[in-house]
Amino acid sequence: RPPPASRRTPVHTTAERSCGSPETGGAARRSSQRSLRSPQHAGVPHEYLNPNFVKAFARRQNVPDVSRVYWKFLETRRCSPNGVFGVKAHFRQLTKVVREPDAQAHLLKRFDKFVIITRRNAVAQALSHLKTKSTYVFNTEDAATLARVRSTPFSTSTAAVAEALAHVVEQNTAWPRKLREIGADFITLYYED
User: Fold this and answer.
1) Predicted model pTM
2) 79 has which bridge partners?
3) Beta-carbon neighbour count of residue 104 at 10 Å?
4) Spatial separation of the C-alpha atoms in residues 23 and 138, rounded to whole Å
5) Which of 116, 115, 113, 94 is nearest to 105 (CA)?
6) How buried is residue 129: exposed, middle or buried, by Cβ count under 10 Å (0-12/13-18/19+)?
7) From CA 46, how far away is CA 53, in angstroms rounded?
8) What are the pLDDT digits (tens) for 88-111?
9) Burial 24-58 (b: 16+ CB within 10 A, else e)
10) Strand, coil or helix: what is 91?
11) 94 contacts 50 by C-beta, under 8 angstroms
């Protein structure tokens, strides 16, 4: 059974592979998420707004519009024992899955707590984003993967870095802007801290 609205708690981080803006540090984010995942904090915050997951669910359920069916499914199966439901998503995922601004606001207003994880160093974040795009590796927790990522060349041309930086800055500012727009409170955590 879904928890009451006052018990649903999404966690919006800012990482391309999780939520908000690209490349905010997998290890740091996972550490934060482990503490946030404890039952009293954020339920089971996975990438529920990833367009690939949403499409797969729609195909499995044979439904064209997954909004109500999808959220009911998640809220009944992905809450912590005390009824907390959490989501991690990047802003780009939200806008791909929920296209209309009013519908985005409606979805976000279902939740009462937001945590944004971002980086202070946008240039380093942009370079990390470029590296991720060239390797398709989204975490480097094991030595072999880290070695492969470090040995993979990627473009650091002015144009490539400028494009990645523009993307990162847009993603870094999108969540706070949207949350202020709907009057939601949020806290911001920084990768470098």
Assistant:
1) 0.72
2) 85
3) 18
4) 8
5) 94
6) buried
7) 11
8) 888 999 999 888 999 899 889 988
9) bbbebbeebbeebbeeebbbbbbbbbbeebbeebe
10) helix
11) no
